[in-house]
Amino acid sequence: MDTIWADMRDGIDEGLMDRAGSIIRRGGLVAFPTETVYGLGADALDPEASGKIYQAKGRPSDNPLIVHIHRLDSLEKIARFIPKQAYLLAEAFWPGPLTMILGKSDIVPTSVTGGLDTVAIRMPDHEIALALIRSGGGYIAAPSANTSGRPSPTTAQHVKDDLDGKIDMIIDGGSVGIGVESTIIDLTEDVPMVLRPGFISVDMLRSVIGDVRMDPGLHGDDPSFRPKAPGMKYRHYAPKADLTIVEGSAEHVRAAIDRLACEAVSKGLSCGIIAADEDASSYHTGIVRCAGSRAKEITISQHLFGILREFDDLGVDVIYSESFDTPQIGAAIMNRLIKAAGHHILSV
Ligand code: TXA
Ligand code: MG
User: Fold this and answer.
1) From 3.90.870.10, 1.10.8.100, 2.40.10.220, 2.60.40.10, which CATH number describes the 4-219 domain?
2) Distance (Å) from CA 187 to ligand 1 centroid
3) Is the peptide bond before 95 cis (omega within 30 degrees of 0)?
4) What one-character-per-residue DSSP string does 255-293 give?
5) Mean pLDDT calculated for residue range 308-322
6) What is the torsional sign of CA 213, 218, 224, 230?
7) What are the tens digits of pLDDT across the range 39-83?
8) Which of 76, 168, 189, 283 has its CA 20 to 30 A from that of 118?
């Protein structure tokens, strides 16, 4: 199939948006920007359409999709037993990078929820995404628009690299603002539980609804705790190279990465380094990529996945990354990075 490229970097093109909406309503697939990462959208209420998402991405069918809505009253159509915390969180953070897990209503097909009786719901904070949801009928199921196992796409070009010829349309809305996927909070538990860290931190959630805990399965060190979000158990974001995260005092980390990179290069290996802007000049060899500034943590989340993709394209053999435990987004950045590294962390 020929994938239509819809350039909306300078604003919404109404003609192309009508076409995108009709593709969705007819059961097709449209990739679109959100504030977090690009999504691959289909009509969430059409089981056949959402089935195509799994096929295009090569995604395991037990991994449920997030349903994207554009207005609050859509929530009551697809969710049941909605607790008051959901409304408080929606008021505080929607539209925005927060996904809520709630009981599902009968109109949501189980193919979208991976057979679960709960549904993930989010209202994205991006005018193209909101216009597409409106034009596509109000309920768009969308995972990140990458091939399963690759880093989530933060530009339309990343989507094209993975899915060209497999989907009906890609809407280019430029680079995304946040760069890591939404925070997921499960409101079906007695104490609301974060299943995936994101831009909205646990502290921000607690400031609105009080007690919130983290899914103990997220740390991954103890195999007796499995993550509750089915997607969190897969080794996502795995670069082709061996990735090691180096942690410790800034000075020790810089010295260790510089030494390890020199050793790798002297063995004839190609070596990538992921550094903060503040540290980049400390490295004497290797391909150094600046994620962003520790003083402006969103610049780090914005660039992380793009750097991992670039190192794949360059075919580097090993990657050493600094650790980025920044105050708000650090938990999300480190969750993705640690998974990409297959839990390979060196403390210095
Ligand atoms: O920022 C985002 O959330 C992006 C954009 C496109 O909105 N979407 C995204 O979707 O990251 P995806 O499919 O890559 O990740 C969805 C995660 C998966 O880990 C999935 O297992 C989990 O949400 N999930 C979905 N429905 C669930 C449910 N009912 N219970 C538990 N986890 C669920
Ligand atoms: Mg994903």
Assistant:
1) 3.90.870.10
2) 14
3) yes
4) HHHHHHHHHHHHTT--EEEEEETTTGGG--SSEEEEEE-
5) 96
6) positive
7) 999 999 999 999 999 999 999 888 999 999 999 999 999 999 999
8) 168
